[in-house]
Every structure is written in structure tokens, then in C-alpha cells.
Amino acid sequence: MASIKSIKAPIAVEMNLFEDKFKEVMKSNAPLLDKITHYIVKRKGKQMRPMFVFLAANICGGTTERSFRAASLIEMIHTATLVHDDVVDDAYKRRGFFSINALWKNKIAVLVGDFLLSKGLQLAAQHRDYDFLEIISGATKEMSEGELLQIEKARRLDIKEDVYFDIIRQKTASLIAACCASGASSAGANEEEIERLRLLGEKIGIAFQIKDDLFDYESTASLIGKPVGIDIKERKMTLPLIYALNHAEKKEKKWMISIVKKHNENQKKVNELIDRVKTSGGIEYTKKKMYEYRDQAMTILKIYPDTASKQSLIDLILYTTERTK
């Protein structure tokens, strides 16, 4: 599996330039905001979303100044949703760092999230990047709807496989789809090609989320700061569990739902449920579905000429499904 460093190689110049440009657009007149945004920039992750923007732009003709604005807008919207998520989830750590709400309390964290959202919209409006606004506002709407649908289903535990895919398409895949679509648009691609790249991002995003859901059943989950069974504890109905429920006898199904509803804080019972999901064939089935979406993404890429950026996109797709964290 290729490393993130080697995947970034064809866009190394763009990624370095992006870092400076992103710091610049994050600046504000409020010293406290500057302090917090500096903290956000300093603890950045792999920056996969800007990578998708630049790689998509490259296979559609090449990066432009607009590509940097698309990447900045995506990163601000993404960061805003993470800051708000940490408040909603009462989370005090993200990627091994203290969350904004842990350091500055909920009120300031919500306002910082609002600032990032409005700053992103202002950046696009100032430069009349209305195509980005259309693409990214659509993704943001879907992310909110997906999150609310998941909360509703977690209460009732009546989720079916098609609803699960609706949730992850909206919650996770919509933003990666927006990265690829806005990258293509920034390179001057036509509507048909923008839609093709949007679909590519959607397929990758669904595969990415399925891989995340699989971590809940793997011992390596603790290595990424995600305790084994955390999705069950949060009453999230992921594909391995849905499969196991669909293939369980009535009595066993009742027992499984009882653990999710009433004993989700009991690690011993959660472990018993994880073992049952594994023996049901739920893990193998989930991996099969993940690889189907990966292969669909690969098929979309076939029409593009062989370039370093296309190879990096292929490697990035493989990375999303083979990563260990």
C-alpha cells in the first residue's frame, strides 16, 4: 500500500502552497479567534480532502488559483462540522489532541464553528465562485440530514441496509464527492465531467465509511483512538451488525437488540455481541460491499489518461480501504 507521502508527490507543490493560503484565509480581527484557528491549523490531520480537490483538478486539466479556494472552502466547512460534532458528542479529544470545546468550552466552540462556516461562504462569494457554493452547500445539507437520520434510527433501532447506505452517503461520502466535484469545476471541467468526479468521490466516501465501521470489530481500533465496540455503545447500526440481525433467528435477534438498547455500556456483553457479528459472516459481507464500492470508483477512473495524479487517486482509493487507522 502506498504511503500518504508518496500519494501526495504529484501535488506536493500544491499542498505546500495550500498550507500558506489556508492560514491566510483563516485570519480574523479577533485575537481569540486567531489563537484558536492557529491551534486548528497546527493539529491538522492527513488533509485528505484538499488532496482529493487537487488530484481531481489535475486529471481534469490542472490546478488553478480557484482550486486553492475550493480546497480552503472544503477544509473550513469540514473543520466547522468537526468542531460542532465535538460539542454535540461532548468529545474532549480529536486525533489525540484536545478538542476546541475541551479547551475553550462549548459556547466558544460553537461560535468558532459558525465563524469557519461563514468565512468559507464569504471566500466563495467574494470571488463569485458560485459553482463551489452550489456544490458545497448541497453537501453540507446532506451531512446534516444524514446525521439527523442516524440519530432518529439509533433511537428506534429499525435501520435497514438501504437506510444505512443513505446515512453514510449523506454523512461522509457527500463531502468527499464535493471535493472531487469542486476540484473538477476549478479546472474548467464541463457539467458531465463534474458529475462523473462527484460520483467518484461518492463511491470512495462510502468505501471509506464502511472501513471506519469495520474498525469497531477489530483489535486495531484501539490504535486509532477508537475503543472496540464504540459504535455499539453509541447505538449506531453499522453494516456488520445489520447483516447479523438480518440473518439471526427471532430469539437471537431479540438478544442482540437488547444489548444495543439496554447493555451497551457493559463491555462484556458488547464483546459477546461483537463475537456473534463475526460468526454471522457480517464482517466478510461488509468487506465485500466495501470492495464493490472501491471497484466502482476504479472503473470511473479508467477513462482518464495514465498520469501521476491518476495513479495517486488509485493509490488513495486503495489507501481508504486498506488503512489500519
Strand content: under 5%
Specify the structural class: mainly alpha
Give, in spatial order, the strands making up the sheet with the most strands.
1-2
Profile the largest sheet: 2 strands, antiparallel
Number of helices in the DSSP assignment: 15
Your description of this structure?
This protein is mostly helical. The chain has a single domain, classed as Farnesyl Diphosphate Synthase (Orthogonal Bundle). 75% of the residues lie in helices and 1% in strands. A two-stranded antiparallel ribbon has the order 1-2. Helix 5 packs antiparallel against helix 8 (161-186), helix 7 packs antiparallel against helix 8 and helix 14 packs antiparallel against helix 15 (308-322). The longest helix is centred in the middle third of the chain and has 27 residues, at 100-126. 41% of the residues are buried.
Tags for this model:
325 residues; mainly alpha; Farnesyl Diphosphate Synthase; two-stranded antiparallel ribbon; 15 helices; 2 strands
Question: What's the topology here?
Answer:
Layout: H1 4-8, H2 12-25, H3 31-42, H4 48-59, H5 65-88, E1 93-94, E2 97-98, H6 100-126, H7 130-156, H8 161-186, H9 191-214, H10 230-233, H11 239-246, H12 250-262, H13 267-279, H14 282-301, H15 308-322
Antiparallel strand pairs: 1-2
Helix pairs in contact: 4-5, 4-8, 4-15, 5-6, 5-8, 7-8, 8-9, 9-14, 9-15, 11-13, 11-14, 14-15
